Design the sequence.
């Protein structure tokens, strides 16, 4: 006798359906996780760019980041209000994500400023990117100025 019995086929189909039902929630969240991870990586790169420019004394000015829920601005100057607007670099956050922050330190609550020549910013703490499913990715700026 060759082939499969009806019972064997039903068991195989049941195993496939159970696997698909288990994977479905993860597959549905996958695009959001990719978007959040990509946005996180871009924001970390820009934070490190501002830090490196400050350490290197670029334009002999403070380097900063002004935070908004849907975008942020890299700037050069004492603070955002007294910046050199010609040097602004605005970055949009993916429309399906929202940026929030929990920072401590001195200065405006929505600005991170690296003084010229320093790797440690005026504000430390956590930046949070939240997607539509409520999943979050965090960026930490610690007391040594490390960005992770």
Sequence:
């Amino acid at each position: 006798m060759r082939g499969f019995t009806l019972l064997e086929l039903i068991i195989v189909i049941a195993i496939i359906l159970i696997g698909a039902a288990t994977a479905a929630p993860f597959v549905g969240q996958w695009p959001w996780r990719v978007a959040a991870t990509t946005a996180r990586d871009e924001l970390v790169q820009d934070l490190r760019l501002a830090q490196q420019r400050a350490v290197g004394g670029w334009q002999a000015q403070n380097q900063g980041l002004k935070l908004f829920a849907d975008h942020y601005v890299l700037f050069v100057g004492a603070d955002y209000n007294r910046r050199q607007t010609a040097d602004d670099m605005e970055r949009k956050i993916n429309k399906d994500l929202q940026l929030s922050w929990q920072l401590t330190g001195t200065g405006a609550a929505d600005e991170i400023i690296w003084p010229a020549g320093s790797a440690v910013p005026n504000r430390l703490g956590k930046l949070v990117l939240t997607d539509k499913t409520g999943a979050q990715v965090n960026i930490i700026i610690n007391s040594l100025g490390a960005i992770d």
About this structure: The chain has one helix and seven strands. The chain has a mean pLDDT of 91.
